Amino acid sequence: MEEGDHQARVVEALGTDCPPAKIQKVIFLLQDHKHFVKYFEPRVASVGPIHHGKPKYQLGEKYKLRLAYEFVKGCRKNINVLYELVEKNIKQLRECFEEEEVTKKYDDEALDWILFVDGCAILQYILCAVAPTQDLTANNKFTELNIKNDSVVFAHQDLFLLENQVPYHLLKLLMSSSGKEGDLRKSIESFIRNKDKSKDDTDPQLYRNVQELKAAGIQLKRSKNSYLRNISFRRRLNFYPGFLCLPPIIVDDSTGPKFMHLIAYEMCLDFKNDFGISSYIFFLDSLIDEANDVKDLRKARVLHNFLGNDQEVAELFNEIGTDLVPKRRNISPWSILAFIGVLLALILSLTQTWYAAHPPPGPCDDFCKIFP
After folding, report:
1. Which of 11, 246, 315, 319 is the most buried (most CB within 10 A)?
2. pTM score, two decimals?
3. Which keywords accompany this UniProt record (predicted)?
4. In a 3-state reduction of DSSP, which class is residue 244?
């Protein structure tokens, strides 16, 4: 009986003693997931000790050093002052991580440097990301640091990965000594709420597939030449809806590899460009969701299918359009026009429905009120 009581007390203690969650690796049950690398591993930059030192994140390390340098420079304090702040608190910071699989291989000095660089880089990244929302005339801060648009977007995703975290206490320490703690806190709040617009990220709600455009009365039309930028929206007699004009494209076995290599070329770090191909494929992918979208593009003589199956074409563009980072200014002029056409058509339709159910009062209505 006494042994049973003891076991009960142990179970009760375990149930009530809830230690704080630690930064750790993804649970082993998910490590065999077929898309583990895609969903759980960083794309550009490692943050914290778990993925630190892996060769594929060498470019991310360069980016982090640039960002950390800018942060320290903006604080107008000697780098040693900020570094010593992390150093003095390393014991408390180390306790925020699971030890066996995460921090055991790092001594205090190594962990100091990892957390110092990553903490400064994160805060500077967030400052750069939210800057345009505070000042519409501000230059792209990432461009000034020679960090390309696609790397910025993937780094944004990396910051929210389970295995890519640092303690918030680290950020609080650095902010408290920065001389701009208030601005940094506001930037973090804005960043987490996804209000930052500096990533040139696109709003998926701006774009509609062919079936939705068709339902709103917008028709597809073939542009006069096959120049990829020759995309426009034209109204018929200045009334909505109108025509979305697209350049003709031939789709065959070479289309996928050809566009994938052009996209890869645009993403090269030493090649500054406007992501024209990526923007085109991103827009085409938004138009094509299913085989019927391809069928309507064929009927409009915009797309010539030499793959033989409309569903194959849809899957092809859905595949190569995955994880693309288009430049917003490349796609806005004509996509927004198309969206406005859809929006106005829907508004007109809703307005007609509402008036049919709620006709406006006329002279007879006022007269009838006198004689109920």
Report:
1. 246
2. 0.67
3. Membrane, Transmembrane, Transmembrane helix
4. strand
